[in-house]
Amino acid sequence: MSQPDFLYELFEDFMDDPVNQDFSMDNGLVCRWMTGQAKISPKISAYYSKPSNQEKLAHTIYQNLLPLMSDCNMAIQDIYTLFIQDDSISDAKKKNLTPLYKPASSRLLFLAKLISFYQ
Questions:
Q1: How many Å apart are CA 37 and CA 88, to the nearest integer?
Q2: Do 61 and 108 touch, CB atoms closer than 8 A?
Q3: Distant-in-sequence, close-in-space partners of 6: CB < 8 Å, separation ≥ 6
Q4: 3-class SS at 24?
């Protein structure tokens, strides 16, 4: 799967929203997003800053991305470990998001909020 295709799958709700019908993902910019050289578009960030859209993102991860992974539980665990070990993230933010990781039922919401936080 190409990087733009991956982001189309991840941000499906944003891309399907009629307000964003003129938005397109430039390959060069997507590459810079994926390598961390550039921040995700402010339009995408603003869209997923709303809690209801974070819940949509969690569902989209479940529906579109988890089936592509051979060991999704290990991937989520590795993301959690990176999050906890990141010294640039405040203890307050860690305390805010960590409880979502503990019950398995809210781990996808943890990922969605984490993606929203990093944007």
A1: 17
A2: yes
A3: none
A4: coil
At residue 119 the predicted structure's pLDDT band, cuts being 50, 70 and 90, is very low
Distance (Å, rounded) from C-alpha 64 to C-alpha 10?
7
The pLDDT tens digits of the residues spanning 14-67 come to 999 999 999 988 889 899 988 889 888 989 999 999 999 999 999 999 999 999
Q: Which helix (H) or strand (E) holds 52?
A: helix 51-60
Q: How far is CA 69 from CA 2, 59, 102, in A?
A: 15, 15, 21
The burial of 23, by beta-carbon neighbours within 10 Å (0-12 exposed, 13-18 middle, 19 or more buried), is given as middle
